[in-house]
Amino acid sequence: MLTKFVIKEYEENGYLVLRGFFSESELHKLREVIAQFHQSWMLENAQFYADKAINSAYLTAKKHLKNTERESLFAFIGSAKLKEVVTSVIGARPAFMNTQSFFDPVNEGQKNYWHRDPQYHMTIDEQKQALLGPNVVHFRIPLVDEPGMELILGSHRRWDSDDELDVRLERNGRKSYEDLATGARVTLNAGDLLVFSANMIHRGVYGMNRQSLDILFCDPAPEIMRFVDESCLPDSDMLERLENADAFKNSIEMKAIR
């Protein structure tokens, strides 16, 4: 388990980095699976990829991977090693939410942008309320060395300043790609594990042919579980073969209640 000091830092800042958490052998298989997904996804989303895409999602669904590759991803997500960090941050009953793959945009002039994840489906008042929970947390694994991310530390617990809100929502003539004085850069190397709250103000930093996998876990709350796609969950046979299937089982149980 993570130390109380590390957890306290996460609670205060909204993020933590575990350097060299994954070995090269662990990353090798992961790179192969994600490369297969990415090639299939690009073919189906060629125009979107060329125009503005910076990420894809639902990697564990059946659409772009065979069951052997899906099970390999499930095994990685359900490893005891990762579970220890997830439960330290979220609590004893985390639920699996989604996966995302992040990459550089094709258009080299495309700007990165400040945002909170909930802003795309919540009103301002709802975004403020979301700061009180339930929680959604990204667990990001860079597959290559990359420029990393910029984060507004502590913004997972507090509302935007006027300057931050103007930039994030592009109000009063501001643009979401403008620099913010409160931003802090976190560079990442292959094998690091970056943990950060989906509620915090953040933006990716493009360059170096970045390629990273984000695994999202959350509190098992109905208002969040509605975003979980059942096609991304393992079937009963796969569940039995996983080192740790608790987070998947929690998601399946919550989806069954609805």
UniProtKB/TrEMBL annotation:
InterPro entries: Phytyl_CoA_dOase-like
UniProt entry keywords in alphabetical sequence: Dioxygenase, Iron, Metal-binding, Oxidoreductase
Pfam families: PhyH
Organism: Nitrincola tibetensis
Protein name in UniProt: Phytanoyl-CoA dioxygenase
GO molecular function: 2-oxoglutarate-dependent dioxygenase activity; iron ion binding
